[in-house]
């Protein structure tokens, strides 16, 4: 009886042990399944997030419309007829051709201009008069001898101020062109002041007429030839009184773009 009981107890113990193992194994399995499942959930979550992220970033990465580079509309370059008589460039670097000739039109006050610019000059003066001004040509065409004389006087004046010959020569050239480098010798330019404006001085009368001329000269084919601050380009100081005929096309362009004749020809 005792044996049977012992045997029975042993059996139960073994069973218990097996049960323990089974429980342990079952727990392990559940744990493994849980871990795997968690991993799967996390992975799924990550994937979802990634997808969302992807979509978001995809949304962000939506290529922006290629910026259309709108260049400022290029103005149709008007071909410059450099051989035209009114396109003649005369400055310290471009003296008048040795064979230069012109026909003059007498203005009746001792001054004259190239007869080809006279009609336009007259039209400009008529318009100025209509606007209430009384313009006068102080200096038009100059002979070679007259230009030479003007320059020598200017040179002497600067020397009298104590300047060296070289300094005086450079300064004189900025105010009076050296012989054969003056537009006045070409008959294409005029110095204008107000009638009774007391010469080429900054009187109120003169300044008013210069302002009107600057605004309207292009309409008649003239330009303000020596604008302020362009001496390195033109070689001449600011001269609000000096207007040069270049034709209406070039004049409109030059005055609208605030450039010099030199820059216009070099474009
Ligand atoms: Zn002049």
List the helices and strands and how they pair.
Layout (H helix, E strand, L loop, with lengths): L1 H59 L43 E3 L5 E3 L3 H13 L4 E5 L4 H17 L4 H11 L7 H4 L2 E6 L9 H13 L5 E5 L4 H4 L4 E7 L2 H10 L3 H6 L1
Antiparallel strand pairs: 1-2, 3-4, 4-6, 5-6
Helix pairs in contact: 3-4
The chain binds zinc ion.
Give structural attributes.
alpha+beta; Muramoyl-pentapeptide Carboxypeptidase, domain 2; 6 strands; binds zinc ion
Q: What is this entry, summarized?
A:
With 267 residues, the protein is of the alpha+beta class. Helices cover 51% and strands 11% of the residues.
Q: Strand content of the residues, in percent?
A: 5-15%
Can you tell me the residue ranges where pLDDT is under 50 for at least 5 consecutive residues? 28-63
* Shape estimate: elongated
Please identify, by name, the CATH architecture of the largest domain. Answer: 2-Layer Sandwich
At the third CATH level, what is the topology name of the largest domain?
Muramoyl-pentapeptide Carboxypeptidase, domain 2
Biggest sheet character:
4 strands, antiparallel
Mean pLDDT: 82
Tell me the domain tally: 2
Euclidean distance between termini CA atoms: 129 Å
Bound heterogens, unique: zinc ion
Characterise the protein shown here:
- There is one protein chain.
- The protein has 267 residues and is α+β, with helices and mostly antiparallel strands.
- The protein has 2 domains: 1-70; 85-142 and 182-266, Muramoyl-pentapeptide Carboxypeptidase, domain 2.
- Helix content is 51%, strand content 11%.
- It is built from 9 helices and 6 strands; from the N terminus they run αββαβαααβαβαβαα.
- The chain has helices spanning 2-60, 118-130, 144-160, 165-175, 183-186, 204-216, 231-234, 248-257, 261-266; strands at residues 104-106, 112-114, 135-139, 189-194, 222-226, 239-245.
- The strands form 2 sheets. A 4-stranded antiparallel sheet has the order 3-4-6-5. A two-stranded antiparallel sheet has the order 1-2.
- α3 (144-160) crosses α4 (165-175).
- The longest helix is centred in the N-terminal third of the chain and has 59 residues, at 2-60.
- Bound molecules: zinc ion.
- Residues 139, 184, 189, 191, 239, 242 line the site of zinc ion (ZN).
- The site of zinc ion has 6 residues, from β4 and β6.
């Amino acid at each position: 009886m005792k044996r049977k009981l012992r045997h029975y107890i042993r059996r139960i113990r073994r069973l218990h042990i097996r049960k323990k193992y089974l429980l342990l194994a079952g727990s392990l399995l559940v744990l493994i399944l849980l871990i795997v499942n968690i991993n799967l959930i996390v992975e799924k979550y990550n994937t979802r997030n990634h997808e969302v992220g992807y979509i978001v970033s995809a949304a962000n990465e939506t290529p922006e419309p290629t910026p259309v580079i709108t260049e400022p509309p290029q103005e149709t370059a008007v071909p410059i007829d450099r051989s035209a008589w009114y396109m003649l460039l005369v400055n310290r670097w471009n003296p008048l051709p040795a064979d230069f000739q012109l026909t003059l039109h007498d203005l009746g006050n001792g001054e004259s201009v190239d007869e080809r610019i006279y009609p336009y000059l007259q039209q400009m003066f008529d318009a100025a008069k209509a606007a209430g001004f009384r313009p006068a040509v102080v200096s038009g065409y100059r002979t070679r001898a007259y230009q030479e004389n003007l320059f020598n006087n200017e040179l002497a004046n600067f020397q009298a101020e104590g300047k060296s010959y070289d300094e005086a020569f450079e300064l004189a050239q900025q105010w009076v062109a050296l012989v054969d480098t003056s537009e006045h010798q070409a008959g294409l330019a005029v110095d204008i002041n107000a009638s009774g404006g007391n010469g080429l001085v900054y009187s109120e009368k003169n300044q008013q007429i210069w302002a009107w001329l600057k605004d309207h000269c292009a309409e008649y084919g003239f330009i303000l030839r020596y604008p302020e601050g362009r001496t390195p380009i033109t070689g001449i100081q600011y001269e609000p009184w000096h207007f040069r005929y270049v034709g209406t096309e070039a004049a409109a362009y030059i005055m609208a773009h605030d450039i010099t004749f030199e820059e216009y020809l070099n474009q």
